[in-house]
C-alpha cells in the first residue's frame, strides 16, 4: 500500500497524525504530510510513501476518519 496527502483538501484536523503518527504528521503550515523515516515528504503525489504492512490498518482508519478526505491510497 502507498499513501499521499492531497493538501488542497486537507483541513488540518490532525486525526491522521493522531491515528497513525508513524506515517502522518502535521507540517509547519498546519496541513498533513506523510513521513519517510524521519523526513516529511512534499505534498501531492510526489510525496508518496510505501506504508509498512504493520501500519496499513491504521492508515485505512485515518483515511476513513479524515474530515477533508485528503488521504490518497494506492493499494498497488
From TrEMBL:
Q: Which domain of life is it from?
A: Bacteria
InterPro entries with a match to the protein in the record: 4Fe4S_Fe-S-bd (IPR017896), Fe-S_cluster_ET (IPR051269)
Q: Which Gene3D superfamilies match?
A: 3.30.70.20
Cofactor dependence:
[3Fe-4S] cluster
Keywords, sorted A to Z: 3Fe-4S, Electron transport, Iron, Iron-sulfur, Metal-binding, Transport
- Report domain 4Fe-4S ferredoxin-type positions: 1-29
Q: What is this protein called?
A: Ferredoxin
